[in-house]
Q: What sequence folds into this?
């Protein structure tokens, strides 16, 4: 089966300035793709190119086997939800949600029905006649989402849509949006710099660094088998042994004695931390690195310990490159 | 406290002089108690008054239209796009305000004679653009800067063409800029005397051309009536323009 969305060797330059290069990925219909990377790494420009607001310097975009590379933004069936809600301040919530429908050949009744339906979907049925300034940040972002979803885009792009919301609301919105996208079977690209968000939202995660994907895979894959040192450091959950190898952190444990059959790092207990109701021990290694490890045993602060792992768990970084 | 200061100044410098003007226009010259409508009668008895008023409105209308078209496009380009020579273009756009208008008019007059625009209403519209366009570009430029590019991109992503984005998003959101430009350019165009006289060559008679010779007249009732008539025009034009603006999409709902 051919993939639903296909991006081939896309690159973008502004003059001599290269924003991203050799970006390729494939998505099945209904899949959510989290693009995770540090801020200012070209993720937004990638989305803008996919939406048609910028043109690709090279490479191609196919959706459903149709080449959309040169199609203008307003006829491309790709919708983009920006970082800010960008609701039209002079239109009511109903008019905002229904705006895109104006350009489709639908009768008025059908349009009204759809707007009502989507207002209900985003839980804002009672707000239809209000103006954007009367809504809270979370509500505005929901309207922005409804305004894009109502067009049933073939590809929905989300550019850190929750970054302007406070923490609690953000966590709630992630769950809600993911559910909604799954319900509507929308294929989506979700850009974020937050690791938790990427894992929570995506069926597939792409780690985007320095203008290209360093690794693409399922959340477990990327989490368990980072393909490069940089990804391991970025995710912060693999214990880096040296430049070429790492140990998944759950295989680490603490030992009071030296054991030559294992790999060990010497250190002192620096304190106890409680995370989600569990006691974790923080160890200050002699290399002055810090590591937090879950251990059921009691340790005293200042005690000498060895962070220990079985050598069989040591894995090598390997560049898997782009998938597909 | 502030509100008292405002009303005092308003009463002293706006309300009081205008009331005097109104009062004088309905009384005999030099008296404020002797009621008489002679000032108005004499004003409308002038053969060229209504004709000149019409000419002024038509010229003003085209000046406003040109200002909107040029101001919106140039202002948008300056605010939202980067292009080679932007600062140079930006400076050139304000130049007409830095040079004496008469100097420009003399130069343009020669050019207009050659291309046949001298002594025509079109030529007068053209010369009225010189003192108005720089302001319009400034106003729209600021409007577009505060509007930003994102709103239009959002419209585009939702399927709107460039033209639809302009109608549905830019026009309503730039409404206060548009109102300022309409009023400002119409008033400026209406008050031009010398440049109209030079380019119009006496064959294009606007209201200002009829009005100025009256200023030294001893008939203060007539001058008062004329001044009020003169001041009423931009107001009426503005109200008319407002009515037209309301025909555009999403306009009725703009609340500030």
A:
């Amino acid at each position: 089966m051919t993939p639903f969305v296909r991006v081939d060797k896309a690159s973008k330059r502004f003059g001599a300035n290269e924003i991203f290069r050799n970006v390729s990925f494939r998505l099945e219909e209904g899949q959510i793709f989290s693009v995770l990377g540090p801020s200012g790494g070209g993720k937004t420009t990638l989305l803008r190119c996919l939406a048609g607001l910028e043109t690709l310097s090279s490479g191609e975009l196919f959706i459903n086997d149709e080449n959309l590379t040169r199609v203008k933004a307003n006829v491309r069936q790709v919708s983009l939800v920006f970082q800010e809600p960008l609701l039209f301040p002079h239109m009511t919530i109903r008019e905002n949600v229904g705006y895109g429908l104006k350009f489709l050949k639908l009768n008025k009744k059908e349009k009204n029905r759809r707007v009502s339906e989507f207002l209900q979907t985003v839980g804002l049925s009672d707000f239809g006649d209000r103006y954007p300034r009367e809504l809270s940040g979370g509500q505005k972002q929901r309207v922005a989402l409804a305004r894009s979803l109502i067009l049933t885009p073939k590809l929905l792009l989300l550019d850190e849509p929750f970054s302007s919301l406070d923490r609690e609301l953000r966590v709630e919105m992630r769950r809600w949006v993911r559910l909604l996208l799954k319900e509507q079977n929308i294929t989506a690209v979700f850009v974020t710099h937050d690791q938790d968000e990427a894992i929570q939202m995506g069926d597939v995660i792409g780690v985007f660094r320095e203008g290209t994907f360093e690794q693409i895979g399922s959340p477990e894959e990327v989490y368990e088998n980072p393909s490069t040192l940089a990804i391991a450091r970025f995710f912060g959950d693999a214990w880096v042994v040296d430049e070429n190898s790492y140990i998944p952190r759950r295989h680490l444990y603490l030992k009071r004695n030296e054991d030559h059959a294992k790999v060990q790092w010497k250190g002192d207990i620096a304190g106890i931390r409680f995370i989600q109701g569990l006691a974790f021990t923080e160890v200050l290694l002699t290399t002055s690195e810090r590591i937090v490890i879950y251990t059921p045993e009691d340790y005293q602060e200042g005690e000498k310990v060895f962070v220990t792992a079985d050598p069989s768990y040591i894995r090598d970084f390997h560049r898997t490159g782009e998938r597909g | 406290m502030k509100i008292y200061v405002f009303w005092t100044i308003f009463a002293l410098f706006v309300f009081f002089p205008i009331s005097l003007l109104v009062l004088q226009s309905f009384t005999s010259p030099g008296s404020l108690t002797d009621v008489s409508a002679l000032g108005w009668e004499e004003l409308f008895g002038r053969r060229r008054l209504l004709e000149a008023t019409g000419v002024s409105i038509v010229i003003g209308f085209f000046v406003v239209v040109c200002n909107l078209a040029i101001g919106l496009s140039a202002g948008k380009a300056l605010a939202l796009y980067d292009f080679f020579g932007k600062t140079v273009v930006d400076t050139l756009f304000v130049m007409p305000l830095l040079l004496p208008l008469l100097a420009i008019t003399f130069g343009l007059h020669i050019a207009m004679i050659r291309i046949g625009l001298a002594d025509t209403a079109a030529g007068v519209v053209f010369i009225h653009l010189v003192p108005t366009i720089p302001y319009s570009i400034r106003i729209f430029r600021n409007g577009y800067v505060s509007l930003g590019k994102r709103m239009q991109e959002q419209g585009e992503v939702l399927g709107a063409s460039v033209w639809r984005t302009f109608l549905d998003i830019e026009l309503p959101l730039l409404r206060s800029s548009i109102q300022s430009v309409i009023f400002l350019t119409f008033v400026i165009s209406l008050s031009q005397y010398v440049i109209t006289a030079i380019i119009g060559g006496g064959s294009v008679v606007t209201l200002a051309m009829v009005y100025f010779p009256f200023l030294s007249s001893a008939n203060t009732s007539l001058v008062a009536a004329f001044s009020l008539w003169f001041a009423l025009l931009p107001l009426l034009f503005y109200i008319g323009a407002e009515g037209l603006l309301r025909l555009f999409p999403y306009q009725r709902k703009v609340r500030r």
In short: Residues 5-224 of chain A form a domain with the Rossmann fold fold (CATH 3.40.50.300). The interface with chain B takes residues 51-53, 73-75, 78-80, 82, 84, 86, 88-92, 95, 99-100, 102-104, 131, 147-148, 151 of chain A (CB under 8 Å).
